Amino acid sequence: MLVTEAGATDSPEAVPGFDPEALLPVLRRVIGARVASRPDAEDLVQEALARMLKASDRIDPQTAEAYAITTARNLIATRWRDEMRFRERRHQLVEVDHAPTPEDSAVDAEDGRLMAEALSRFSDEDRALLLAHEVDGVPNAELADRIGSTAGAVGARLHRLRMRMRVEYLLIAEGIDPPTTRCRSVLYALASNDRRRRRESDVEGHLLECDTCYALSTRLQPHETTDDGTVRLAIERDADLVQARQAARELAAHLGFAKVELTVIATAVSEMARNVLKFAGSGTITLSALEQGRRGFRVVVADRGPGIPDLEAAVRDGYSTYRGLGLGLGGARRLMDEFDVVSRPGRGTIVTMTKWLEGNP
Q1: Rounded to whole angstroms, how far apart are CA atoms 159 and 145?
Q2: Rounded Cα distance, 18 and 39, in Å
Q3: CA 96, CA 98: separation in Å to the nearest integer?
Q4: Which of 38, 64, 135, 189 is 20 to 30 A distant from 101 in Cα terms?
Q5: Running DSSP on this structure, what letter comes out for residue 3?
Q6: In terms of DSSP bridges, do strands 295-303 and 283-291 run parallel, antiparallel, or are they unpaired?
Q7: Residue 60 DSSP code
Q8: Mean pLDDT by 10 residues, the chain (361 residues)
Q9: d(Cα 122, Cα 160) in Å, to the nearest integer?
Q10: pLDDT tens across 142-177, in order?
Q11: How far is CA 273 from CA 233, 317, 335, in A?
Q12: CA dist., res. 99 & res. 222, Å (int)
């Protein structure tokens, strides 16, 4: 126990009844098993330790380890809840935590106008449901009782309404009137990231035919996890291949993929980016994390090049039209768990690849 020059002991907060250093390995093991990013995990470790030190006068040294584990789990649960809340409300503008300026007020007024106009495109029932949940904070179960449904069905319906809201808000803000009757269904499928809906709407095929939806597509791709976000890169020169490969490795490592899988992912990404540069001259690559009951990594590579004349031959394993890494589309497909390619002559190509963290689907 520390003693001051006057002989008085320090406060309980300054002299805990447990050894903080001894708890660090426990905290790092518990948090590191659940948080892939090492910097984020270490932040949570320090936060957990700070909370324990603050409550040191109430912690029995015999139960300090159990207290540390509980504190760590609570912090992780709070973090996940915050991430979920952010995902559910990402169609809204980011809240500011400073005193509003005249510019902020003008932005808020304009945002309110856009929101109101977007909501006017909903039915009365859908609008009331969305406002009750998003504005009034009414839980799904209570909403289900009101309309004679189930909490799960209400949750799914609210998800679809939020995605519609994102699309309508963006269309109004950009002053865009979709050029075809298919556009809205495609944009809704993009925003929701519903694989079945994307397939039924032939999203990739439509994007290659509709310049308007193609331009909007990158702004509607959802961020599956808020910490990881989504990385979008332009592919225009050789240096971009290195950047794409490195970005893929970093994001996949953040998600917890093993070193061997990092090499696999980076190789597939590099080969697809090289194809863009070689055959289309330029394009884009989108790297994103997935949370769909399991964690995964998705890559979308798009270009507006000449397209692939013989797609069936191009996806055949071992087929390559130039001396690159020798993988070609077929090789990249073999490396990833899911692989889809859509190409239109004279319009371009979109390749979508997915790697799941825990084995094959």
Answers
A1: 18
A2: 25
A3: 6
A4: 135
A5: B
A6: antiparallel
A7: -
A8: 36 53 82 74 80 77 81 76 52 46 59 83 90 83 90 88 88 89 89 76 86 80 49 83 86 87 88 87 87 84 86 64 56 87 88 81 47
A9: 12
A10: 999 989 999 889 888 988 888 888 889 888 888 889
A11: 10, 18, 15
A12: 30
Burial of residue 267 (number of CB atoms within 10 Å: 0-12, 13-18, 19+): middle
- Sheet of 348-356, strands arranged across: 230-235, 283-291, 295-303, 348-356, 338-344
Tokens in use for 45?
A: 């470790």
CA–CA dist 219, 213 (Å, integer): 10
Instruction: Write out the two tokens for 323.
Output: 């001396």
Structure tokens that stand for 351 in this block? 């390749």
Query: Alpha-carbon distance 116 to 200, whole Å?
Result: 30
> Residues 128-131: contacts with CB within 8 Å, 24+ apart?
129/154, 129/157, 129/158, 129/161, 130/158, 130/161, 130/162, 130/165
Quickly tell me which residue has 């702004």 as its tokens: 219
CB 329 within 8 A of CB 351: yes
Amino acid present at 35: V
The secondary structure of 169-210 as a DSSP string is HHHHHHT---SSTTHHHHHHHHHHT-HHHHHHTTHHHHHHH-
CA dihedral 216, 217, 221, 227 (to 10 degrees): -70
Report yes or no: 282 and 235 within 8 Å, Cβ to Cβ.
yes
Give the integer Cα–Cα distance in Å for 201 and 189. 7
